[in-house]
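Hi P.,

Sorry for the delay on this. The queue was packed all week, but I finally got your sequence through. Input first:
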Amino acid sequence: MKLEYRINKIKELLIKGNNLKCSSRTFKVFGYQFNYYTECFGDLNAYYFNKHEVIDRLVSLDMDNRPGTIKEKTLYVCVHDTASAAETAGSLAHANYVCNGGGGTSWHYSCGDDAIYHHIPDNEVAYHAGDGLKVSYYTIDTGVLATTKVPCIEIIDGYFYLNGIKSLIKVPDLTIVNVDGTLYYSSCGVIQTKVKDQSLTVGEVKLNLSTKDINDAGINTLIINGNYHFTPIYYNKSYGYVANRLGNLYSIGIETMVNKGSNLLVTWHKCAKLVAHLLKDNNLTLDAVKPHHFFSGKPCPMTLRYNNMWNYFLSMVEIEYEMLKYLSDDIEIILNVDKLNNGGVLLEEVNEVVSYEIIIKTKEFEEKFILN
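Then the structure:
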């Protein structure tokens, strides 16, 4: 790919990513200690101009939360937030937490506005998606001919309907099973959580599911031999949603920080750049980026989703991902703006038109252009 062509594509992407209206916004942050409000002053571009840097802080192989199991393959990148609002709950604190056992949980990366730490090798299993560890990858033929890339999925009378056509697939079951005198919920044959109410009887639990009980990130749907196929699904009793399995065994988990005093926009931009690199490294597409909610029905990453920022986050990932097709060590991108910022994220309120210069620099020459 010729250098001139790459530079032109980079310029096109940066022009596309320019935010014509860069306004401050107050976000509500959700934490298990407390909720709080924080103001961010906007970002100049969907692209984050600072370099991508990751610090290794790996969990020891003798810890229970790093089983050392090699994944069969990576299918997804799963985005969480920690729901820890305390000022002290930054990326280093979470890196130390997971390296000290994580209460039995683990994830691959901790991403804050200050740093990104890497804990579990990308090709190993981590315990972050809450979808069970016993289900391997397979596909289920719905029996419905694919007519669109992404079908409209509904639940009617106990069956999934795709684009209005009844499939062969019933909604997931939910049963109560007795294991050595203790009762547990089980969905699709996999034990989920302990049932505290011992008055419940062993056997099927009537669900009466409807379309609203499907997690709002959807059901993973593939087109194989002309038909729609599902990957494994289940009903998560804890959160009350039909969700997708394979999160623990087939995804890379990222925890984003929402601690008081941090800049959420910087955190989300750094995370988007990390996600783009992981997509490139694992030969995945943008469809592979999923919220934790997709795998369990848990409202996570809660702050990102409940502030209606998920789609903008995906647009950040998209431009970072596209830029990686054309960037390499022979091209440097420099942001030049007379405003306090972090990689293009404004750190103070601005009530005027902001002009910023972008320099695309190589050994042979440099090109400058202005965006507003």
